[in-house]
Amino acid sequence: MEYHDHEWGVPVRDDTILFEFLVLESAQAGLSWQTVLQKRDAYRKAFDQFDPKKVACYGEKEVGRLVTNPGIIRNRLKILAAITNAKVFLELQREHGSFSNYIWEFVHCQTINHKIKNAKMFFCTSKESELMSCELRRRGFTFVGSKICYSFMQAVGMVNDHEIGCFRHHEVMDSPKNSYAKNLTIDERKADEGKAEASSGGWGGIRTLGADQGTHAFQASAFDHSATHPYNL
Fold first, then answer.
1. Is 65 helix (H, G, I), strand (E, B) or coil?
2. What SS3 state is found at 145?
3. Is 33 noted as a catalytic residue in this protein?
4. Of 67, 149, 190, 195, which one has the greatest count of Cβ atoms within 10 A?
C-alpha cells in the first residue's frame, strides 16, 4: 500500500510525472492497477524516464524493442498510443506553457474533494472526465476514455477519492499543494451533475459503483479493479 499511503490523490503539477501517469493509466486498460504498479520501474527504464520529448521521437526500432520487453505490457497499440500521446503532449505544452496548465483547467485548477463514506459511493466517471476524454481525443490522444481519464484524475490529485475515514483523506486535503481544493459531498456532486445534465439536454455520465468496481478504490480488495477499465478507446 506504499502507493496509496504516499502518492495516490496527491496533486501533481510536474509535467514529467503527469506524462508518466498518462502512459501508465493507458497501459492499464483491461488490467488491474496492481499489475501496472509492479511494472512501473521497468516502464521508467523502457520509456526514458517518461521524457515526452524522447518518447515522441520513437520509431519502429524503439517500438520493436518495447514489444519484446518482458518488463512492460507488450501491447503494440498501447505502446503506439504512448508515442502518439507524447507528440500531442508536447503540442499542449507549447500552447499552454505546460501540460499541467492545460489539464488542471478541467477542474478549474483545484482538487475536487469527494466526501466518500464507503465503497458504494465511488465514481467511475464524471462530467470532468467525460469532457477531458472528448477534448484529449479531439487533440489526437488515444487510449483516453472517460474511465481512464477519471482514474488519471484520481492518481494525480485532481479529485480526492480517499474515503473520509481513511487517514489519507485529510492528509491530502491539508497538503500545501491543495490550497485551492473544492469540497463536494456525494449529494452535492449529484446535484451538480443534475444541473449539468439539464443544461446539456440530457447527458448522464456520472455513475456510482460497488466495492468490486471502484476505480482505484483502495479497500480490502486492494488494487484489483479491472472491471472499471475495459478497452474504452
1. helix
2. coil
3. yes
4. 149
